[in-house]
Amino acid sequence: MAPIGILIVFCSVLGGYALEHGNFHTLWQPIEILIIVGAGIGAMVTSAPPKIMKLIIGGFKTVFSGHLASKAEYLEILGCINAILSKIRKEGLISIEQDVENPTASPLFKNFPAVLHNHHLLNYMTDNLKIISSTTIEAYRLDALMELDSDANHHVELIPSVAIQKLGDALPALGIVAAVLGVVITMGKISEPPEVLGHSIGAALVGTFLGILLSYGFFQPFSTNVEYKVNDHGVAFTVVRVSFVAFINGSSPQIAVEFGRRAIGGGDRPSFAELEAYLREKK
């Protein structure tokens, strides 16, 4: 959807300008673009160490390639949790040792590609299953451990959103910098005819226009887009956490999975009947 939003912004702004019989030649100011974009990139490089810079670049990719989890994906996650917990209940904790040590070769995980191909979620599940299978841990301690793990990942995944937002906040000010430089140049032409001064002042004001447009039309929405996707990504981790904790607390696999289902909000939450039908199909 991001490309469609970008197209709407361009069409609305430039279309409105055209309807007012604006001169597009005046808007084309490559030097103003160089000043604003170059200064913005320079400021970001100055503020972000190399490791953070990689995350920020990944964040821009997420705007155009990331997706929100669907009901079908949540059904697979819940089905995978149910399969794991049912195997533990029937065969004991030792039965999942090979599954968690090498999940990519596990027939159990291969049956749920939405989990197998989500490497962060897969590592989250297997790391905590290793804890469950290798030691006795109280439910509240497991809950605290898994919450700490997911919060740490969530913090890192939000870094690109925060960085892009800060860049968006800076762009209007950088647009003013470009505009002021344009005014300085205009003052050097004070003896020129009015039409020359008017064109020069118009070119200077384009800097302010571009800074505001880039900020509120593009970079602020980019930041929000990444934030929404990161928050949505975190729901799957919550589903796993509450399911595992409920199981350790004595719930049956079916009830534990129901805890996980209730952690999903909105229209993406499978109904009780949908989950039940899916689990029957997977047996």
Can you characterise this structure?
By secondary structure, the protein is an all-alpha fold. The protein has one domain (30-283). Helices cover 82% and strands 0% of the residues. The protein is built from 13 helices and no strands. The protein has helices spanning 2-19, 24-27, 30-47, 50-65, 71-91, 97-101, 107-110, 113-116, 119-134, 139-187, 194-248, 253-262, 272-282. The longest helix is centred in the last third of the chain and has 55 residues, at 194-248. It is elongated and about 90 Å long. 29% of the residues are buried.
Task: Briefly say what this structure is.
With 283 residues, the protein is an all-alpha fold. Helix content is 82%, strand content 0%.
